[in-house]
Amino acid sequence: MSSTTRMKGRSRRFWCICLGLILALNTLLISPSTTSAAVTPLPGPNNPLLYDDFNGGGLYKQNWMNWFNQAGGTGTYSKTTVDSRQVGLFTQTPTSSSSWAKFQPMNETVDLTGYRYLNVTMKNPGYANSLIRVVVGDGTTNYNLTNGWVAIPTTWTTSQFDLNALTPALNKKTARFEIWLRQSGGTYGETLIDDIFASTDNSGTAPTLTGSMTANSASGYNQNTSFTFKATYTDVDNEKPFAMQLVVDDSLYDMREEDNGDTTYSNGKNYYYITKLPVGSHTYYFRTTDLTSNQVSTAVQNQPVVTNTAQVIDVTVSQAGYNAGAFKNAKVTAQLALTDTSYVVKNGATVVATGNMTYDGFFWNKHVYSIDFSSITASGTNYTVVSNSISSFPFAIQPNIWTNYKDEMTAFYRILRASVATSDAYPAGYSSVAPSANIYHAAGHLDDAQSADGLTHYDLTGSWYDAGDYGKYGGNQWVGSEIALAYIRHADAASSKFDNDSNGIPDLVDEAVFGSEYLVKFANQLGGEMYDLKNNASFVHPSKTTDNINGTADDRKLSGLGVGGSAKAAGTLAATARAIRTAIAKGDIAPAKVTALTTFANNCEAAAVTFYNYVVANPNGPVGSYSTRGGIPNSKLLADVQLYLLTNNTAYKDAATANINTLVFADLASTNYWVEADVFGGVLSSR
């Protein structure tokens, strides 16, 4: 602990579904994702984070609590005025010299991201044998910042603690503070605490920042205009930016790196953000910090002005890009029917294809047109599709575009994990592009779930939340099978073996295991029945709507029995067991994990059989949520095939074959049939 002087400061029906996805994605892409409604200063020497000044300032404005007393005694907290300042008065009345008093600011967490030091200003007003211990935790690990009990100074002193020196690294997003007092002489004592604040380093040279705005419209701006904001960050100390942000109308947007591989900041690194803007007058500027100097901002620009047009046109493409040899399609949507249906495809400024669009129809109050540009196979990173002078966002064509996205695919499911703190499931550096800190949620619904009548509690924690809410639905339990099959089908490829959390298990297998743990619980407790656990609150993080305590009013109840869900669960469990056994056989599992995963694979097989037998016994039961064409037989086909491939039991193969032989052309609309019929060399082959 070091002491310094006191511091202070503050994809017709099928198309409809696809169109919905495209429009939803396009909305996300053209509507910036706000980091913060208010432009608060970035961390820096002049912008410390004031947690509590005990005078109504800072993030925490409530009273601290005497949370616990070790070996007897009591503690109190109040505010008082001492030395012309309002401070926190913490007292301890011990029963012995072994008594400790623990104080906490309720059970609140604070995000210290960007800050290096925690500072606590304290004073002993004259009591003998007064000791203090300052603790910070993140929900997983507690760190004794004072390295034990230390004497409290008798003059106002700010003690500074280096959070970056903690091992393992502190998750600064979920920091919690504790103050422990100990009157080692066994007599009453008082401790005064003033500011508690976080601060940064103050060294090096501030970065420089330049920026500009361009648009895909040469004459006037309207809702169709795509604006490209670019900024260049230069730091002579070669320190990376903590944040590179565009501020439009006092809302923050995190900019993207032009080159993720560029780690040299001393000669300038480029960032960009592309968006559309609503009608009105706008302002913008850029800002950044390196955390060792103060925030740097460009001058505010009083532009652009966006005017209204009745004809709103969007050209939507895959923002991930396209594989060179794959089908490539763009969609154009327009409020009014287009008289000009021509289009061009450009690679940079060079036109590489022209043609006329195909009219798909009128969906959701928009005219929809298709552009097939599959003939373009040359690699490039700056392709655009243009129609009616409206350009798509730039996109890439590469031999295998998905190589750069495999980590984000598993990352998506990690963020949807239920009953865990997702920041723990998503270690720093897990994906090439980190998600916003606001997307993480704390552990929630640890009290799932009650029976429909509320008389029985089952342990049904885990699984993934639905993509649109915090429910968990039986009809979605096919997802784990696709994750497992992604590994199985490519188990010989190095690209399927990535282990970004370094736990000795390929991440695809890891995620299939996580989803299957939930299904094993269902099989063991409910004998093959599968239910929904619907969202019972608004669209806020689950920890804000559940107390995580069994038997209370907010416990979610089972509803929506679905035999289709049971069949999907059987398929997922069998696929997961296959993935585990394949990974072990390939040597992709760390030796220390083999025994436990072998046992779990056996448990998955047993649970898959439990679900399957339930489906066979209840062929006319309710399909359940997220029903598909073909109903229960559709879902059961997934289980038939996966159990046959897992066990080599021909009864499953015979059941699948009988089902496949009944299929007609219309069944092509059902994904399960595409995949499973191919296994037996059927007439449908699209795997």
Automatic annotation (TrEMBL):
Signal keyword on record: yes
Kindly state which keywords UniProt assigns to this record, in alphabetical order: Carbohydrate metabolism, Polysaccharide degradation, Signal
**Would I find Signal among this entry's keywords?**
yes
Signal peptide, first to last residue = 1-37
**Glycoside hydrolase family domain span:** 434-663
Residues of the Cellulase Ig-like domain: 314-390
A UniProt-annotated Pfam family: Glyco_hydro_9
Protein origin, superkingdom: Bacteria
Instruction: Give the family from UniProt.
Output: Belongs to the glycosyl hydrolase 9 (cellulase E) family.
The entry's protein name is: Cellulase
Organism expressing this protein natively? Paenibacillus plantarum
